[in-house]
Amino acid sequence: MPTILNIDGFSVRIRTNDHKPTHVHIFKANGEAKINILNAEVVKVWNMSAKDVKKAEIIVSENAEMLVVKWGEVHDAR
Hints:
This protein is an alpha+beta fold. It has two helices and five strands. It has helices spanning about 50-60, 65-75, and strands spanning about 5, 10-15, 25-30, 30-35, 40-45. It has a five-stranded antiparallel β-sheet, covered by helices on one side. Strand 1 (about 5) and strand 2 form a beta hairpin. The longest helix has 13 residues, at about 50-60.
């Protein structure tokens, strides 16, 4: 699972064998959030505080254009 971005203690990753819709997995400490890139909608959260989930949404929203490009690169490379 390539790491696309590290920011403020968050690691943004895209799974190479994942499916649409375009989304990322964001990790911090022991938590993880799955967030759709195009609308920054949280799909699922595992063991992440509400504060960290909100920050993860902001990270996705602020970097959406780059993340969509990276999604394409990761999945076209399969």
